[in-house]
């Protein structure tokens, strides 16, 4: 997002009735909102539905924004409140703890699934496997720690902003983030072949399992928009091994793209929906400032 001053000016204009300002606000918030939703829910359609509802909540409550703290924090707090009410996902039910992940890998290894790599798998599918795997691992964290991890590691929220979003103290936010990082780091260091050459779990090995189980749909990848991704996990691994553990974690998760759908067209339809009169009621905006 742009500077707070620029964003605050857009908020004021939007509340006063500027459609252009509101559409620009949506363009600025849709990526972090969708990114958070996708990484929490690990399902593209569910993430799109949640992000759309969150954006509608933002624009219909825009006049309640008090310009205290960052606008991004205000938006992401609305997103967090929504996402915490979503029913548990399949991944959450299956992987209630990091120890469950170890057990899953043990069973995969016992069945020989970690010893049957595809011959020269498509690079975009190998990248998709990595993306699905590292985000499925997050499902083994409880939601409060998962939110702190996504906000801090993926979106880059600092402790002050994180405390506003999660409604906790900066110290509590840092503690949650630290605990989440430690648990995820420990699992990856001991198991992920991108992090360590001797580790048992490799993208090319686990890919056939993910395709067979429905975690990956080759024609409709969740994180990689089009077949043709040039990035190669092996080269990423070489790059990661030159970093310290904290740098590895941040780079690994931020290497995954999650391009947001364009929600601006949805907002244009909202203008004409009488359920959301606040967007067209200029008297509300005029009286607020």
UniProtKB/TrEMBL annotation:
<keyword id="KW-0805">Transcription regulation</keyword>
<dbReference type="InterPro" id="IPR036388">
    <property type="entry name" value="WH-like_DNA-bd_sf"/>
</dbReference>
<dbReference type="GO" id="GO:0006352">
    <property type="term" value="P:DNA-templated transcription initiation"/>
</dbReference>
<keyword id="KW-0804">Transcription</keyword>
<dbReference type="InterPro" id="IPR007627">
    <property type="entry name" value="RNA_pol_sigma70_r2"/>
</dbReference>
<dbReference type="InterPro" id="IPR013325">
    <property type="entry name" value="RNA_pol_sigma_r2"/>
</dbReference>
<feature type="domain" description="RNA polymerase sigma factor 70 region 4 type 2">
    <location>
        <begin position="133"/>
        <end position="183"/>
    </location>
</feature>
<keyword id="KW-0238">DNA-binding</keyword>
<dbReference type="GO" id="GO:0003677">
    <property type="term" value="F:DNA binding"/>
</dbReference>
<dbReference type="GO" id="GO:0016987">
    <property type="term" value="F:sigma factor activity"/>
</dbReference>
<dbReference type="Pfam" id="PF04542">
    <property type="entry name" value="Sigma70_r2"/>
</dbReference>
<dbReference type="InterPro" id="IPR014284">
    <property type="entry name" value="RNA_pol_sigma-70_dom"/>
</dbReference>
<feature type="domain" description="RNA polymerase sigma-70 region 2">
    <location>
        <begin position="25"/>
        <end position="84"/>
    </location>
</feature>
<dbReference type="Pfam" id="PF08281">
    <property type="entry name" value="Sigma70_r4_2"/>
</dbReference>
<comment type="similarity">
    <text>Belongs to the sigma-70 factor family. ECF subfamily.</text>
</comment>
<keyword id="KW-0731">Sigma factor</keyword>
<protein>
    <submittedName>
        <fullName>Uncharacterized protein</fullName>
    </submittedName>
</protein>
<dbReference type="InterPro" id="IPR013249">
    <property type="entry name" value="RNA_pol_sigma70_r4_t2"/>
</dbReference>
<dbReference type="InterPro" id="IPR039425">
    <property type="entry name" value="RNA_pol_sigma-70-like"/>
</dbReference>
<dbReference type="InterPro" id="IPR013324">
    <property type="entry name" value="RNA_pol_sigma_r3/r4-like"/>
</dbReference>
């Amino acid at each position: 997002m742009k500077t707070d001053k620029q964003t605050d000016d857009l908020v004021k204009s939007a509340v006063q009735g500027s459609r252009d300002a509101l559409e620009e606000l949506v363009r600025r918030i849709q990526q972090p909102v969708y990114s958070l939703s996708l990484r929490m829910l690990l399902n593209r359609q569910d993430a799109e539905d949640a992000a759309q509802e969150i954006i509608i909540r933002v624009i219909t409550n825009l006049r309640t924004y008090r310009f205290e703290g960052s606008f991004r924090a205000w938006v992401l707090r609305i997103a967090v409140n929504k996402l915490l009410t979503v029913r548990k996902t399949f991944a959450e039910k299956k992987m209630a703890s990091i120890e469950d992940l170890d057990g899953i890998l043990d069973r995969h290894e016992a069945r020989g699934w970690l010893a049957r790599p595809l011959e020269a798998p498509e690079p975009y599918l190998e990248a998709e496997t990595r993306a699905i795997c590292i985000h499925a691992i997050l499902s083994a964290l409880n939601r409060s720690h998962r939110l702190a991890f996504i906000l801090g590691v993926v979106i880059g929220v600092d402790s002050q902003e994180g405390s506003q979003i999660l409604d906790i103290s900066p110290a509590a936010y840092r503690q949650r983030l630290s605990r989440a990082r430690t648990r995820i780091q420990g699992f990856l260091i001991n198991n992920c072949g991108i992090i360590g050459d001797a580790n048992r779990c490799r993208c090319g090995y686990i890919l056939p399992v993910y395709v067979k189980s429905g975690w990956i749909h080759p024609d409709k990848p969740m994180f990689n928009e089009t077949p043709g991704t040039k990035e190669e996990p092996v080269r990423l691994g070489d790059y990661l091994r030159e970093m310290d553990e904290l740098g590895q974690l941040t780079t690994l998760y931020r290497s995954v793209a999650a391009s947001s759908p364009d929600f601006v067209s949805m907002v244009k339809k909202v203008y004409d929906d009488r359920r959301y009169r606040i967007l067209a009621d200029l008297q509300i905006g005029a009286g607020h400032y």
